[in-house]
């Protein structure tokens, strides 16, 4: 009963990402000890608490913003409101904002 599900572990990791920082689906998967970053994307697409679990701060490894439960435009708006610079739906200088989970 005390076991925490992979999904809940994923959400706990995402909750650690501070405002103005981002991480990647791959980074989350590696921190969870799995190879499936698509599984991470699936978990985030079903995020029950997007304010507490800021899934908008998870992007693709190439800097593309990726999807979001409330739409890509809303994700871009949220990231920009946190000071993250983008061009054509892509994070500029990904490493500047990158938050390592491991």
From TrEMBL:
InterPro entries: MethylDNA_cys_MeTrfase_AS, MethylDNA_cys_MeTrfase_DNA-bd, MethylDNA_cys_MeTrfase_DNAb, WH-like_DNA-bd_sf. Residues 7-84 form the Methylated-DNA-[protein]-cysteine S-methyltransferase DNA binding domain. It comes from the Archaea. SUPFAM superfamilies: Methylated DNA-protein cysteine methyltransferase, C-terminal domain. Keywords: DNA damage, DNA repair, Methyltransferase, Transferase. GO terms for biological process: DNA repair; methylation. Coiled coil: none annotated. The keyword NAD does not apply. PANTHER family: METHYLATED-DNA--PROTEIN-CYSTEINE METHYLTRANSFERASE. This is MGMT family protein. The lineage of its organism: Archaea, Methanobacteriati, Methanobacteriota, Methanomada group, Methanococci.
């Amino acid at each position: 009963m005390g076991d925490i599900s992979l999904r809940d572990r994923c959400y706990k990791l995402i909750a650690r990402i501070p405002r103005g920082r981002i991480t990647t689906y791959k980074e989350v998967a590696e921190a969870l000890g799995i190879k499936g970053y698509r599984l991470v994307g699936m978990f985030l697409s079903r995020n029950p608490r997007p304010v507490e679990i800021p899934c908008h701060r998870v992007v693709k490894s190439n800097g593309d913003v990726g999807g979001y439960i409330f739409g890509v435009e809303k994700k871009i708006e949220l990231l920009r409101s946190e000071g993250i610079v983008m061009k054509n739906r892509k994070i500029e200088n990904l490493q500047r904002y990158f938050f390592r989970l491991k």
